[in-house]
Amino acid sequence: NAGVTQTPKFQVLKTGQSMTLQCAQDMNHEYMSWYRQDPGMGLRLIHYSVGAGITDQGEVPNGYNVSRSTTEDFPLRLLSAAPSQTSVYFCASSRRTGTGELFFGEGSRLTVL
Amino acid sequence: SQQGEEDPQALSIQEGENATMNCSYKTSINNLQWYRQNSGRGLVHLILIRSNEREKHSGRLRVTLDTSKKSSSLLITASRAADTASYFCATDGNTGKLIFGQGTTLQVKP
Q1: Cβ distance of A33 and B99 shorter than 8 Å
Q2: Which of A77, A93, B58, B84 registers the highest number of CB atoms within 10 A of its CB?
Q3: Where are the alpha helices (DSSP H) in chain A?
Q4: pLDDT band at residue B1 using 50, 70 and 90 as cut-offs
Q5: CA distance B38 to B87
């Protein structure tokens, strides 16, 4: 089983560029989410989705967009990258709700110059 | 703001010793979870304890929950070098979403 797959694993952007971090899960999970992890800050929730067609904001949504057109995929878009968005991004899914066991991808390390 | 706060931030022990890390949180919860993160990897779920439970075991892991003190502890017995990782607590805080603490970094020396 692949579980939660994130691509790319590493990315370097220049300020102002846009990009999409991909996340796919093959467990038929309803709930999907994006976190960012920064040193000394733990994980902070960016956006989440409780099912296809439904998304909502987490703690730190500014500068990021998401969509959920299928159960399997939950891409995270950076429209105009800023150095403050340098971080490690994790996608996570859960069978039904956001408070159950989360299954994490391996992370995407993003550097914005 | 973080819902859960782990203590200590870092812990270094010898193989075979027990490791205890603590988590404090601010609001009422439905459940509390512990996760492990190996360096450069994603988080892996270890254990979930519900608000009406006081203690839970899984292999060498023992988790306690004291809702009156809004705190939890994770005990790893007979630590191994492979237990070297960061450990995070996460709470739902009645928000419908998991909020993570900053983590405890555990180093187990062979």
Answers
A1: no
A2: A93
A3: none
A4: very low
A5: 9
Q: Which residue of A has its CA nearest to B10?
A: A40
- For residue B2, list chain A residues with Cβ-Cβ distance below 8 A: 42
pLDDT tens for A64-75 read 999 999 999 999
Q: Is A54 exposed, middle or buried (0-12, 13-18, 19+ CB in 10 A)?
A: exposed
Q: For residue B95, what is the nearest residue in chain A, using CA coordinates? A: A99
Residue indicated by tokens 């782990």: B6
DSSP code of residue A84 = G
Q: Which residues of A touch B31 (CB under 8 A)?
A: 99
DSSP secondary structure letter of residue A41: T
Residue A1 touches partner B, C-beta closer than 8 Å: no
pLDDT in tens, A82-111: 999 999 999 999 997 778 899 999 999 999
Cis, bond preceding A8 (omega within 30 deg of 0): yes
SS3 letters for chain B? CCCEEEECCEEEEECCCCEEEEEEECCCCCEEEEEEECCCCCEEEEEEEECCCCEEEECCEEEEEECCCCEEEEEECCCCHHHCEEEEEEECCCCCECEECCCEEEEEEC
Backbone angles phi and psi of B74, in degrees to 5? -115, 120
Which residue is listed with tokens 């703001």? B1
